[in-house]
Design a protein that fits this description.
The chain has 270 residues and is of the alpha/beta class. The chain is built from eleven helices and nine strands. The protein binds adenosine-5'-triphosphate and magnesium ion.
């Protein structure tokens, strides 16, 4: 077991909260391209995630889910509105904010350089953020995600899909963030490995009291990991539900009902 509390003291990464919300999205509009090619990916979306909460974003492909996550790390062009992490705008490029909030991509190669060993991939953020005890922290992170030291000098292509996703999660947690943005964290994996990764994410959240924003097209994943969720369609929030509402299929929207009927496992859990 990793000594979380000891390392937390050393790598204390909190950016002083400038707001009550861990994640704040208010009337957010994102438009890709201009003129006739303009693409309104997100239209007037508002959602708020409290510290320690796990919030899900579900919806069909192209509905704008990843765009919202990417706004929280300062990537897409925001036309108007607010996307903040602990009250801070990620576009300001504050290095400390990147320690507070990390993203796990659907494709682990989004986090892992194919030509770098896991040792290098995991050491790099520590060096950038001038955090000491690199050797110890890399070993701890690999242990914590169930990989262990024997994987340390492997390249990403020398891992199975599930091991690669564990390595990507190790890279996300090595800076001891308060918040993880999880973009389809299991959709590239087969069903048995999906369960392992979901259990790992649930355990990490409990141990570290992490805040999660989880994107998935699979309502069963959202149901497993999240306390609340929003359903998106064509750049809009269709409705917000509690996990309980989801399990009982208490929905006000025909679109959500359609999504539920397409996601078989949630029905059987109610
Ligand atoms: N860089 C970009 N330039 C232009 N259009 C983009 C860009 N990124 C995304 N889009 C468009 O914005 C819309 C929303 O994309 P986004 O990736 O947020 O959807 P998503 O809900 O995450 O979909 P999926 O479930 O397939 O990952 C899509 O129509 C997509 O084609
Ligand atoms: Mg996406």
């Amino acid at each position: 077991m990793v000594e979380v509390s000891a390392s937390k003291t050393e790598a204390c990464n909190d950016v002083s909260p400038a707001a009550d919300w861990a994640l704040e999205i208010s009337d957010l509009n994102v438009v890709y391209n201009t003129g006739v090619r303009a693409m309104h990916a997100v239209s007037g979306v508002s959602l708020h995630v409290a510290e320690g909460e796990a919030f899900g974003l579900a919806g069909e492909s192209g509905s704008g889910k990843s765009t919202i996550l990417r706004c929280l790390v300062g990537l897409p062009p925001i036309a108007s509105g607010i996307a903040k992490v602990t009250g801070h705008d990620p576009r300001a490029g504050e290095l400390r904010l990147y320690r507070t909030c990390q993203m796990v991509f659907q494709d682990p190669y989004g986090s892992l350089h194919p030509l770098q060993t896991l040792d290098r991939c995991l050491s790099e953020p520590l060096i950038i953020h001038k955090i000491g005890n690199v050797d110890k922290r890399v070993r701890q992170a690999l242990d914590h995600v169930g990989l262990g030291a024997k994987f340390r000098f492997r390249y990403p292509h020398q891992l199975s899909g599930g091991q690669r996703q564990r390595a990507a999660i190790a890279r996300a947690i090595i800076l001891e963030p308060r918040t993880l943005l999880l973009d389809e964290p299991t959709s590239a994996l087969d069903v048995s490995v999906q369960a392992e990764i979901l259990n790992l994410l649930a355990d990490l959240r409990e141990e570290r009291n992490l805040t999660y924003l989880v994107v998935s097209h699979d309502l069963a994943v959202v149901d497993f990991l999240c306390d609340r969720l929003a359903i998106m369609n064509q750049g809009l929030i269709v409705e917000e539900l509690s996990r309980d509402d989801l399990c009982r299929q208490k929905t006000a929207s025909e679109y959500t009902r359609m999504l539920l009927s397409a996601s078989d496992s949630v029905w059987t859990k109610a």
